[in-house]
Amino acid sequence: MCGITGFINADGGSADRAILERMNRAITHRGPDEDGFYVNENAAMAMRRLSIIDLASGKQPIFNADRTKAIVFNGEIYNYQQLRADLEQRGHTFYTRSDTEAIIHLYDEHGVDCVQHLRGMFAIAIWDEREKTLFLARDRVGKKPLLYSHRPDGSLVFGSEFLAMLEHPAVSREVDHAALDAYMSFLCVPAPMTAFKEIRKLEPGHWLLWKDGKITMQRYWLPDFSKKIKISEAEAIEETTRLLRESTKLRMISEVPLGAFLSGGVDSSTVVALMAELSDRPVKTFSIGFEEQDFSELKYAKRVAEHVGAEYNEFIVRPNALEILPTLVEHYGEPYADSSAIPTYYVSKETRQHVTVALNGDGGDESFAGYERYMAMELAELYHRIPRPLRKYLIELPINSLPSSELKKTRIRDVQRFLISANEPVVERYFRWMSTFKPAVKPDLYTMEFAASVANSRSVDVLGKWFYEANGLGILDSTLLTDQMTYLPNDLLVKVDIASMACSLEARSPFLDHNVIEFAASLPENIKMNMMRPKYLLKKVAARLVPREVIYRRKMGFGVPVGRWLRGEMSGFLRDVLLSDKSLNRGIIRPEAMRRYVDEHIEGKFDHSFQVWTLLMMELWFQRFIDQK
Questions:
Q1: Is the C or the N end of the chain the one with fewer CB within 10 Å?
Q2: Of 202, 219, 236, which closes a domain?
Q3: pTM for the complete prediction?
């Protein structure tokens, strides 16, 4: 596990090692154990290493047999021992025991198709000195980040984080307005965009090949929901358990201390239970709670740990948002407003005091239908079958006449909002549910100049592309595919990678094994979610491993009381940042709209928690990355 960075000169000029060293130093937190450099007249590559496997001889860069190719690599390849054995039978000779060396020999053997053989999380850079090509590749689901900038002169800069990319003097900080418009919808900037015009994200499941100043990109993986298997519920439970057990076992390979995040939810509880089965010693688990939480899942986490015989470590913290925000803004490198990054950072920081690797339950919801919004999508399809006059007069008018609060989340408010969206087409409906600033409010939110600059950008297309790609699939599978291609890699995996690596902690996710994802995609919809019961199959699996009271309860988020903070101890800070002259004159948000959102939230007239947090994180990003060059 590490961070990687580098650049390729198209004009044949010699690579500047001093620039490379600055870029690499910017991501020391991703690999505090050692660094490594490869520099010649065309190519410059570097890495920072967090030693996990082959501690003695895994130093990068690593070369192929005739030293014509060099690799720097971020991630873990869980099937590398099998790959190595196969390659040795083909005559390849190895000089380390690392997973990295297996990749470069695979590239010798299969070229760009080497990624098809890899099982794990990865961001890869391979320089071929003989062919003068650079190969970049990112894992199937997007666990590991990989940014690049293809320069007008044909040169290319790449890196694991914005902090590294922006150390290269040729990379501009010009802001991408279309990316900011998308951010205002999704809390994050969806790939391949970034907040910087000249920096792009290599999308998950893609490789990129640079040669003679030109780049070629190709998608090499996409889960196939169309090929359904015939399987009984009992068989599906057995096969899901088998695949998850195997996936978990592979992710327990480590030469350094290893543990697991344990939230008390279905996914992390399942992973911990499987780890306990596979381990000959108590599994170290780490759970975090907050003094201000109205309801804590810690009692469920503790119950799971006791049931499976795991070592339970619980941390109760009082988050200091003012103290942690500069750290989060610095590491995310572009506007990012998912406030659950705060507890993710805290649990990573505490966990790193005890272990170097932690398994988690990420990805279970997106493969096994864990969110309530999947149920809502199916309900909306059923609702559409009711004749429009009946919907309007017998359902919508009576329910909309009921009193509801804009400050307190209630079932009445939820139903009222559901009815508004349920009458819209599928894509627009899901976009409304997934967006922070709804399309209807943006005309009054943006300045005329900013609105004109994003007139041709359609954030809804980020989701629409995948719903259309899913043509012919059921509504559940269409939504799962869309989330796997958007919400999962753009929001959740970015959150965990950046928060954990900021603490030099490696996070591993058994649910994100592509074999698990592909099997879940092949299952009939009614096995994954049965009779409007989300995560129906996975709960059946989990109930065999942990107590039923942990499994059969309402899903809770992993969050912090941002709305209360912004109305309380952070209100002064919020006004100072968002209502400053600099903020109001950015030319993006209308000053009167900014004041209205801030005032209405602080005064308790409306709950604008997500909206105000989104505006705050964008302004803090401007201050750090645009104002401070």
A1: C
A2: 219
A3: 0.94
pLDDT in tens, 244-292: 999 999 999 887 889 999 999 999 999 999 999 999 999 999 998 887 6
Cross-strand partners of 136: 125, 208
Pair (539, 584) in one structural domain: no
Q: What DSSP assignment string belongs to 406-451?
A: SSS--HHHHHHHHHHHHTS-HHHHHHHHH-SS-GGGHHHHB-HHHH
User: Which residues are CB-contacts of 145 (< 8 A; sequence separation ≥ 6)?
Assistant: 123, 138, 160, 161, 201, 494, 497, 498
Same-domain status, 243 and 313: yes
The CATH number assigned to the domain holding 71 equals 3.60.20.10
* Tens-place pLDDT, residues 442-458: 999 999 999 999 999 99
Q: Residue 589: beta bridge partners?
A: 446
Told to judge if 2 belongs to the known catalytic residues of this protein, a careful annotator would answer yes
Q: Which residues contact 401 (CB under 8 A, 6 or more apart)?
A: none
The CATH number for 445's domain is 3.40.50.620
Q: Whole domain around residue 528: which residue ranges? A: 226-559
Q: Residue 376 corresponds to which tokens in the numbers above?
A: 């809502």
Q: Give the model confidence (pLDDT) of 403-416 as tens digits.
A: 766 656 677 777 77
* Of 2, 114, 188, 503, catalytic: 2
Domain end among 500, 525, 559? 559
Q: Which of 171-185, 226-240, 401-415, 606-620 has the lowest mean pLDDT?
A: 401-415
